[in-house]
Amino acid sequence: AKRNVLITGCSSGIGLALAVKMAKDEQKRFKVYATMRNLAKKEALEEAAGRRLGKTLEIKQLDVCDEQSIKTCVNSIPDRRIDVLVSNAGMGLIGPIECQTIDEMKTVMDTNFFGLVRLLKEILPDMKRRKSGHIVIISSVMGIQGILFNDVYAASKFAVEGFCESLAIQALKFKLQLSLIEPGPVITEFERKVFEDGMKMDLSAADEETAEMFTNIYLKNYKQIFQSLGQSAEDVAEHTVKIILAENPPFRHQTNTLYTPMTTLKYADPNGDLPIDIFYKMVFHHDKIFSASLNFIKLLRWRSRKSFDLGKPSQ
Ligand code: NAD
């Protein structure tokens, strides 16, 4: 039998790529319920799904910030059976906290963290009763490590990770699986929106040094970081499908091997100073080392693409 998969935030990015990839599975192992907050934005997904639309893929409305919309959506699925839940909907926020309102911050927490909680309050009891189900959460490397000017976004993803670590223990008792997918930078709408909002930000509430740091260091390097380290949404979708199909899916999975040296620092020093120190040096003291390492990464990418194109491993 097909596995029913419900994915949130499918109007763009990782959600769209994942929904289409699973709907087009050659072995037809999935029935995808691709959900989005605003159905007026369904055109891109419809187009990408092509002939799978109405067959292995159905589009439904679901706003992770609205309990009723979650209930209505789940009730519309035959027997309310969801075998795989992919909690993907999310939003970013960058900049100095002095320039952000508490309401803006609450919206990020409400979407990224309480969005997941609302989904599970509706879906977890059914999974427990059936003693089967896989909960897959698109978290971030920022769920394990903070980054300059991403304070509230990182906090929202840390909240997700802490919540899931606690829940995973209970889930094991009910034979449920839980997996956190942790991408590094991914080139999607998210990145574009976050950057544009950063560029438009009113920095008058910040002191000169902070405003300067945000504009001339953070925003200046932003595009370069995404260009050098960024993955495509399709790439993250491919990793996610592998985790969904794995016999023993891991609790955590990082999708970007170029980024893993950074997250490893977290576990290398129990005092927690090492990653902070390295990030500090990269950002404020060794601008040259920073660009040199980005160039090195670009070279690695170019080499791996080249060997991939040739269909043989690199020498
Ligand atoms: P995206 O902006 O293309 O996709 C996010 C989707 O979530 C959008 O379609 C948006 O409409 C939807 N959404 C927002 N609020 C919603 C709500 N209340 N209800 C339902 N849907 C809602 O960006 P993306 O990069 O594909 O992001 C997907 C996930 O990946 C997010 O959780 C994000 O935090 C995570 N992520 C992204 C990156 C990155 O660099 N792009 C890196 C790591 C993790």
TrEMBL record:
One Pfam short name: adh_short
Gene3D superfamilies: NAD(P)-binding Rossmann-like Domain
CC per GO annotation: cytosol
InterPro entries per record: 17beta_DH, NAD(P)-bd_dom_sf, Sc_DH/Rdtase_CS, SDR_fam
GO biological process: estrogen biosynthetic process
GO molecular function, one term: estradiol 17-beta-dehydrogenase [NAD(P)+] activity
SUPFAM superfamilies on file: NAD(P)-binding Rossmann-fold domains
Catalytic center residues: Y153 (proton acceptor)
Binding annotation for substrate: S140
Keyword Lipid metabolism: yes
Binding-site positions, NADP(+): 9-37, 63, 157
Domain of life according to the entry: Eukaryota
Keyword annotations from UniProtKB, A to Z: Lipid metabolism, Oxidoreductase
CDD domains: type1_17beta-HSD-like_SDR_c
Similarity annotation: Belongs to the short-chain dehydrogenases/reductases (SDR) family.
Protein name: Retinol dehydrogenase 8-like
Organism: Aythya fuligula (Tufted duck)
